[in-house]
């Protein structure tokens, strides 16, 4: 998928990955807001959020190829595009022989997994 992206999208993904690497190497105390959050406009923040799906797909496909593992990633937080309302994404990589991913095979996935995660986020990001 990454190879088929435009140069602009590839540049944005690479910048996002580089920023994440720099953040990981910093010895800052973990908080809900990073120092770089204050420097981002709401539209820049939203652009990074919008890049999560292609970045996750690229990373997890590569990891799966190297490890023979499958992955499920759940993420969420306030969405500038939605006025700060909590927004979540869930990405599954790996399918059964019948073509179903983890979310498809787990009964009541939204109720059992996503709803409690949203409740956690609402508490974690409550100001």
From TrEMBL:
Compositional bias annotation for Polar residues: 31-42
Region annotation (Disordered) ranges: 18-42
Name of the protein this chain belongs to: Uncharacterized protein
Extent of Basic and acidic residues compositional bias: 18-27
Domain of life, source organism: Eukaryota
Protein source organism: Postia placenta MAD-698-R-SB12
């Amino acid at each position: 998928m990454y190879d088929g992206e435009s140069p602009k999208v590839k540049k944005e993904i690479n910048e996002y990955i580089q920023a994440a690497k720099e953040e990981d190497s910093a010895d800052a105390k973990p908080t809900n807001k990073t120092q770089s959050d204050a420097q981002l406009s709401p539209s820049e923040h939203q652009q990074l959020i919008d890049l999560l799906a292609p970045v996750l797909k690229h990373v997890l496909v590569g990891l799966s190829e190297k490890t023979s593992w499958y992955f499920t990633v759940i993420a969420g937080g306030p969405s500038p595009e939605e006025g700060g309302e909590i927004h979540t994404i869930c990405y599954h990589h790996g399918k059964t022989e019948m073509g179903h991913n983890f979310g498809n095979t787990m009964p009541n996935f939204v109720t059992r997994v996503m709803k409690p995660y949203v409740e956690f986020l609402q508490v974690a990001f409550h100001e």
